[in-house]
Every structure is written in structure tokens, then in C-alpha cells.
Write a structure and sequence with these properties.
Elements: H1 2-16, E1 23-30, E2 35-42, H2 43-49, H3 62-67, H4 69-77, E3 80-84, E4 87-88, E5 90-93, E6 97-101, E7 104-114, E8 121-126, E9 137-144, E10 150-156, E11 162-166, H5 173-190, H6 192-202, E12 207-210, E13 213-216, H7 220-246, H8 254-270, H9 281-303, H10 310-339, H11 343-370
Parallel strand pairs: 1-9
Antiparallel strand pairs: 1-2, 2-7, 3-4, 3-8, 5-7, 6-7, 8-11, 9-10, 12-13
Helix pairs in contact: 1-11, 5-10, 6-8, 6-10, 7-9, 7-10, 8-9, 8-11
Length: about 375
């Protein structure tokens, strides 16, 4: 029971992080004489940093937000440094507005950036929320209108607090693909609904249900090839719908996609307790992987895609997701193989873990379907 309690605690921690990670969206346009931009920052993050909910009723009104506009601008600008060829640029904020993103309300700050000279090399120092949330990222879209509107994207955050952009040089397609590959790895590792879905499909890989009895797999290659079929089917499926969505050929409402992803976790986990798809889990992985691909597409939509290297960016992101999945498999499979004959694996990990995953995913499903907040985080 102690081990089961530790397992349930680990799953509870995963649930606490299952909501969309903290992001801000920074767009900068380089013009012939000056630079301009727009910075979207989530109100929920600013509430933690600055304190927007003055009366503590859990709601942020326009009046409360307007009272804090100066504090928001001061907080944000202290964490963004812009330099042109090594010389500091002055950044000022215009009249703030509010915009809705898929994960809630954001303040929108128009930026005017005044540099001593038109930049050849633009440097950005970004430390927003670095002391509060090490997983926070700034999603940058940089457009140079003086050079045929060349556009590039980057991810700002603690892993790279200062980045330099040579405006005269085109961003290499391979470098952008590598950047998106890193983002793919990162997304699968923090996408806990995706991880729990994958784990639900992997848990039975080291054994078989013969009637009501658990029979451990005798040969490791059999378990390995079963896992490979599941992971390959999942990868192929989400690659198809990710590409279709990014290219604009298929579009589904975000609420439907996120709810369906939660439902897929519930069904995959319950299948381990009451088997319905014995021997055909790769089919389940493929069918539900199609839905998960639309979830990955929303991440790429937030990042923005370089039109000049669209195919390479897609390939890089998909390969990154695949590498992230293989890293999970590399940790999971040897441990599961070693425990497969034990009652602990059969009862606590396979059955108990699957029921815990199903319960957590059911809460996510209710939250996403009915726009509720049922978990206290």
C-alpha cells in the first residue's frame, strides 16, 4: 500500500502540472527608422507577480486591471532588454488592451522601441517570470520589414535568457528545424496528458491477460516490438493530423480537441483494467493519436511557423516529439520488464496506476468540457 500511495502521489503531482504551461507572445517588427512590437502576457501569471485581483474575489475586472497598468508595464519592461549592435534601446508601452487566447485572458502591450541606429544585430534579454516559473517561455516572432519581410521565430526563457539575431543573415532552415525539434521534446515532456495516454498504452506491454489471470511475457523482444508498434502508430497518427492542421486543411475547436484528449486518456487507462482491445492497442494508439495531433498543432500555432522552412519546422517538431517519447520508453520498459512478475506491478502499477490515471483524466475531461476548475491548482 505504501508503494501504491507513492504512485498515486506522483500522478497527483502530474495532474497539478497538466494545464497549459506559462507562455507570453512577443512580436517585434524592424522598420526603416524604428522598431515596434506587441507583447501579450497572461493575466493569471501577472496576478501572481503583480497582484491584479484587488478585492480577492477570484475575478479580474477591467477596472482592477486598468489600475495596475503602470505596475504591469514597469514589471514587464524591467525584464526585457533590447540592444541594437550593443547599444541599449529604449522601450515604451502604449495603451494596454485585453485579448483572449485559448487558455484565457491576456494583457496586450503595444511597444515602441527606439534605438540609437537601425540595428544590424538585435539582442534580446528576456527574464519575465524567471524567478516565479522556470518553465515560462516567451514565444518570439521577429519580422524585418526592411529585408523583404523576413520572419523568424525563437523561444525565449531561462534556457536562453539572451539571444542575438543577425538581421542581415537569413536564419538557416536547419537551425530553425533544430529549434522546433527542441520544442517538440520539451512539449511531450510537459504535456502530461500525452504522457499519461502513452503510459496507459505501455503498461500492459510486458504481460498478457489470459482470462482473468496476468501472464508475464517471457521474451523481451516480444514486449519491445509491442511497444514499438504502439509508439510508431501514435507518432504516425499525430504527425498526419498535426500537418493537416498546421497547413490549414483541417481545423477543430480547441475545446473539443482538449476534451477528446482527456477522454482518450480515460479510455486507454480503463482498458488496462477491463480489457476491450487486447492485442490491438496499436490501433487504439493510432485512432486517438489523430486527436492528439490537433493538440500538438495548437502549440505550433502559438509558436508561429517560418513559411520559408515550413516542412523542415514540421519535421523537426515531429522528430522532437518522437525523441521525447523514446526517452520515456527507455526509462519505462526496463523497469516494467524487471517488475512484470511481481504482484506489485500487476496490482499497484497496472491496475492501481491505470485507475488513478483514469480518475485524473476524468477530472480534466469535466474541466475542459464544462469550463470548470475542479482541482485546487
Amino acid at each position: 500500500m505504501k508503494r501504491l500511495a507513492l504512485l498515486l502521489l506522483a500522478l497527483w503531482v502530474l495532474a497539478a502540472q497538466a494545464h497549459k504551461p506559462s507562455d507570453s507572445y512577443l512580436s517585434i517588427t524592424v522598420g526603416p527608422q524604428s522598431l515596434s512590437g506587441r507583447w501579450d502576457i497572461a493575466l493569471r501569471d501577472l496576478d501572481v507577480a503583480v497582484g491584479l485581483d484587488a478585492d480577492g474575489d477570484g475575478r479580474i475586472t477591467w477596472g482592477e486591471l486598468r489600475m495596475q497598468h503602470a505596475a504591469i508595464a514597469a514589471y514587464a519592461l524591467a525584464r526585457l532588454q533590447v540592444q541594437a549592435d550593443g547599444a541599449a534601446c529604449a522601450v515604451t508601452v502604449g495603451a494596454q488592451q485585453v485579448d483572449e487566447h485559448t487558455d484565457g485572458a491576456y494583457t496586450v502591450m503595444p511597444l515602441t522601441i527606439t534605438c540609437p541606429q537601425p540595428p544590424q544585430v538585435l539582442s534580446l534579454g528576456y527574464t519575465l517570470f524567471a524567478d516565479l516559473d522556470p518553465q515560462h517561455r516567451g514565444l518570439l516572432n521577429l519580422t524585418d520589414s526592411t529585408r523583404a519581410a523576413a520572419t523568424r521565430t525563437a523561444i525565449l526563457g531561462p534556457q536562453a535568457p539572451v539571444q542575438r539575431f543577425e538581421l542581415a543573415a537569413e536564419a538557416g532552415a536547419a537551425a530553425q528545424a533544430l529549434q522546433y525539434g527542441r520544442e517538440g521534446v520539451w512539449h511531450i515532456w510537459i504535456g502530461f496528458d500525452h504522457i499519461l495516454f502513452l503510459l496507459s498504452l505501455l503498461l500492459p506491454a510486458v504481460g498478457l491477460w489470459a482470462g482473468l489471470r496476468w501472464q508475464p511475457v517471457e521474451r523481451f523482444p516480444a514486449a519491445f516490438w509491442d511497444v514499438l508498434r504502439v509508439v510508431t502508430a501514435f507518432t504516425l497518427a499525430h504527425s498526419i493530423t498535426l500537418s493537416l492542421a498546421v497547413l490549414g486543411w483541417v481545423s477543430l475547436p480547441s475545446r473539443l480537441v482538449e476534451s477528446s484528449i482527456a477522454a482518450s486518456v480515460v479510455l486507454a487507462a480503463l482498458n488496462n483494467v477491463w480489457p476491450l482491445f487486447q492485442g490491438r492497442r496499436w490501433v487504439v494508439a493510432f485512432l486517438f493519436g489523430l486527436i492528439h495531433g490537433f493538440g500538438f498543432a495548437s502549440v505550433l500555432a502559438d509558436l508561429g511557423l517560418p513559411q520559408g522552412a515550413l516542412a523542415l519546422a514540421l519535421l523537426g517538431f515531429n522528430l522532437g516529439v518522437e525523441l521525447g517519447q523514446l526517452a520515456i520508453v527507455a526509462v519505462f520498459l526496463p523497469a516494467a520488464w524487471g517488475l512484470r512478475r511481481s504482484a506489485f506491478y500487476r496490482v499497484a502499477v497496472l491496475k492501481g496506476g491505470s485507475l488513478a490515471i483514469a480518475a485524473l483524466a476524468a477530472v480534466w475531461l469535466a474541466e475542459r468540457l464544462f469550463e470548470l476548475e475542479l482541482l485546487p491548482f
